[in-house]
DNA sequence: ACTGAAATTCTTTTGCT
DNA sequence: AGCAAAAGAATTTCAGT
């Protein structure tokens, strides 16, 4: 990817609503040129979309946890991500190398909700779970530096 | 938090650039009313900001990993997050309950970069590390359902 | 690919209920 | 808190280089 495109992406990571006028000033291009580049980045899938960044505490989901899962029957094909995709508390699902097969990142309101969620995960996907509670988040979703 | 506010936030999670006109149509409010609510959500810190969602492969950082760290000398005060905050490859830092003290989420270009990053982490923070490589990401940053 | 300008739409402010 | 209308700014399109 090119240098100016990289800069545009980096700027949009810090402020996803930055105007093309301001992006132009920061890159030395006209608004139309920036606009065209952003459109292409979107078309090529480099830019997947735009999202609001929320305070999870304020939105009623103060409890974050990582849940590692492992199939109970390793001889069966593992379609855990599909089986779990309907559970809204699961914010992310990573297939990982190591003893366990997936790491889930989940957000709930309180410990009792986590207990309930774990039961749903175990029964939906036929897996064992290992939960790591997040106590605080020094930083998260930091923009890449470019 | 109120029901309409929750809906506005949920919509902005799916499309952070959705116009106030469209937000109004989806919530049954006028553009001004929606605008006022979004402004308050921003002031109250419920909405922290807006960001572009990028394809990390396309942007040259295809390799993701979770690195759990543990202080070598547990008697010392642990200021790892501060010490590590200058390392751009670290996208997130979570303080966690359990055997280890923090989980870092990192993104690099290739395995050799990860090796280099691990060396920097160990020397900067005086910690041992345990790395879990992400093989694929079935889903990530899914919007909360509301 | 970039520029500049015109047409359209969105944001933002203000006054009113 | 919400609505409507007006002013200002941004997006989007288009012709030209």
Task: Give an overview of the whole structure.
Chains A, B: It comes from Jiangella ureilytica. Chains A, B: Residues 1-62 form the HTH asnC-type domain. Two copies of one chain form a homodimer. By secondary structure, chain A is an alpha+beta fold. Chain A folds into two domains: 3-44, Arc Repressor Mutant, subunit A (Orthogonal Bundle); 63-133, Alpha-Beta Plaits. In chain A, 36% of the residues lie in helices and 30% in strands. The first copy, chain A, has five helices and five strands. Chain A has helices at 3-14, 20-27, 31-43, 80-84, 111-125; strands at residues 47-54, 63-71, 90-96, 102-108, 127-139. Chain A has a four-stranded antiparallel β-sheet. In chain A, strand 3 and strand 4 (102-108) form a beta hairpin. The first copy, chain A, is elongated. The model of chain A has no long low-confidence stretch (mean pLDDT 96). Chains A and B meet through helix 1, strand 1, strand 3, strand 4 and strand 5 of A and helix 1, strand 1, strand 3, strand 4 and strand 5 of B. Strand 5 of chain A pairs antiparallel with strand 3 (90-96) of chain B, so a sheet runs across the interface. Chain A binds a DNA duplex (17 and 17 nucleotides) through residues 19-21, 29-33, 35-37.
């Amino acid at each position: 990817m090119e240098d100016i495109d990289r800069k545009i992406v980096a700027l949009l990571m810090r402020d996803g609503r930055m105007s093309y006028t301001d992006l132009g000033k920061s890159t030395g291009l006209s608004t139309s040129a920036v606009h065209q580049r952003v459109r292409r980045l979107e078309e090529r899938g480099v830019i997947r979309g735009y999202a609001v960044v929320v305070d999870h505490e304020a939105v009623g989901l103060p409890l974050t946890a990582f849940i590692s899962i492992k199939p109970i029957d390793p001889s069966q094909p593992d379609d855990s991500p599909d089986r779990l995709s309907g559970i809204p508390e699961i914010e992310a699902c990573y297939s990982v190398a190591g003893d366990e097969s997936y790491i889930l990142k989940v957000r709930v309101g309180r410990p009792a909700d986590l207990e309930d969620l774990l039961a749903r995960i175990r029964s939906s996907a036929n897996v064992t779970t290992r939960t790591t509670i997040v106590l605080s988040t020094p930083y998260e979703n930091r923009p890449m530096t470019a």
